[in-house]
Hints:
GO terms for molecular function: dephospho-CoA kinase activity. It is found in: Cytoplasm. Catalyzes the phosphorylation of the 3'-hydroxyl group of dephosphocoenzyme A to form coenzyme A. Its EC number is 2.7.1.24. By secondary structure, the chain is an alpha/beta fold. It has 2 domains: 1-32 and 107-196, P-loop containing nucleotide triphosphate hydrolases (Rossmann fold, 3-Layer(aba) Sandwich), CATH 3.40.50.300; 37-102. It has helices spanning 19-28, 36-46, 48-58, 71-78, 82-105, 119-122, 138-148, 154-163, 167-173, 186-201, and strands at residues 7-12, 33-35, 111-115, 130-135, 176-179. α2 (36-46) packs across α3 (48-58), α2 crosses α5 and α3 runs antiparallel to α5. Bound molecules: adenosine-5'-triphosphate (ATP).
Amino acid sequence: MNKPKPFLVGVTGGIGSGKSTVCRIFSILGIPVYAADDRAKWLMANDPNLKKEISSQFGEKSFLEDGSLNRAFLAEEVFSDPEKVKKINALVHPAVGEDFKKWTKEQSAPYLIKEAALLFESGSYKELDYIINVSSPLKIRVARVLLRDPHRSEDQVNHIIDQQMPDEQKNELADYVIKNNDSKLILPQVLEIHQKLCALQK
Length: 202
Ligand code: ATP
């Protein structure tokens, strides 16, 4: 008999909410995780078609002489221009979507995880069966990101937060919410959701 197809679970949450931390636990439990934001960066630097499109829309300065992505230039280009953010997302999101589809075919597990900050904003939540939102108070998120990313200023972090869907809205849209604050442990919450998801497969 054919094995049932694994279902697809999205893990989302604003910057610094703890998505990657939560996904590391799922990964230890044997669940394959597709880190869409990391993969997007990889594709921008390595996918020849995507590179060509970025060059033609944002100019040749988008890549350095050695062919690597000119992150500083692109960040400066799109940082404060919502139209340019839309334009680059319109190139990158479909490429990630295709890459994710290919990846799912190579996996074998009860369910698979796609981790991304903008699952709701990008519309890609529609291709997933269940969504988990990692929810964390703003103050904690900003403090954790500043500690993790010394190159970022508080203004930059707040600017990114302003571009993302508010946490309350994500909590309403999600099937499961993991609270990552200073008073709740994430491990038992992940285990509970993992058990529920595994039971759904049977
Ligand atoms: P981004 O959107 O920027 O990728 P993220 O949502 O993936 O962020 P993480 O990188 O998992 O967030 O967490 C942000 C920082 O906070 C990391 O340095 C992580 O180690 C730390 N962190 C996350 N959860 C906790 C926690 N419960 N206690 C202490 N530190 C935490």
